[in-house]
Amino acid sequence: MRVSLIIHIYALLHAASAIVCRLLGVPDEYVLTLLTIMMIVQICLRKQKSLNVINCAIAFGNLAGYLLGTVIAMVIAKTGMPEMGIYPLSTFITTEAVGWTILALSRLFSQETSRDRVTRTWTVIAILGVYLTRIALSLCYRKGVFNISRGTEEVLYFLSSFCVMTLLVVLVMVGYEIVERRNVRKEKEKRHLAQFRYLKLSQQVNPHFLFNSLNVLDCLVNDGESEKASEYIRKLSGIYRYMLGHEEQVLVKLGDEIEFTRQYVDLMMLRFPQGLTVNFELDDEALKMCTVPCAVQLLIENATKHNAIDRRNPLTIDVSASSSEKWLRVSNNLCPKLSPVNSTGKGLKYIKQQFLDISGKEILIEQDEMNYTVTLPLL
Description:
alpha+beta; two-stranded antiparallel sheet; 7 strands
């Protein structure tokens, strides 16, 4: 159905409603206000306008309709037309004018149909606010609650309507601000996720990691340990397969993450055949819960990066998880290297931000003279 036809139909409905209400002796503004709101909403939806634009259009349409309808009725009354014809004709002309004005103004705004739940909620509040307030004001003035003259009644009715519409616009803008802040937060979360994915990608092509891996592989080949070399290649392949396969996932099962981490630990054991021990203590239910991809592997990598590993200074890493308390803990003893390691701390920072963005939960970092522990929430 064309928008022009919608406007004509609603104009006829307004006129018919005015006639029926006068025949029944009931106020017509209740029905006319509802019809005006329905027409404005339908026009804006046909033009794919955002719900915030619809809210403003409702405020403008009702206020303009009241003013224009009053003026047109006064002009027609001067022609001597009977009252039964004045109001149907004035409301028909007013509806046509409001409808075409809303249609013209809608072209000033881009097509942006919003489906945000917060925006929808504010729209419903706005529509109900306009309709119920108009009814309340009408009842108060008709019942003589304010005990004022007819002329003053019209002025106050207009001023009250204007104040209501102004308040409505303010509410709409507040709702819009809420939506915008949510959108900014979502964009920020996407940015952090992109940063974390970049971190994982950089790990995949990390020259230092590749250099050490190829070094170990070369040693195995030169020593004639073909079976170990073959096993090393399979595990290295499994690590890359996991990283690539979970690059787009926000969360993974802890069981999958631990299986991947064990493969990584096996590679590290070949690199550090003496002095490195990694213990896993996880209950079956915890393995069904979720965590951030590569989080455990990254914490183990940090431990091996910042601590000396040899027979005289063994490094022990404990990985434990509790499904009842919903936490995963990675702890290691401190064996600081003689030469400090240059580190940006980005890995731990990204893990912290990932958990905060996804669940709103913080990770816990504890350090004393003997141990360094990171506790992650299980989701």
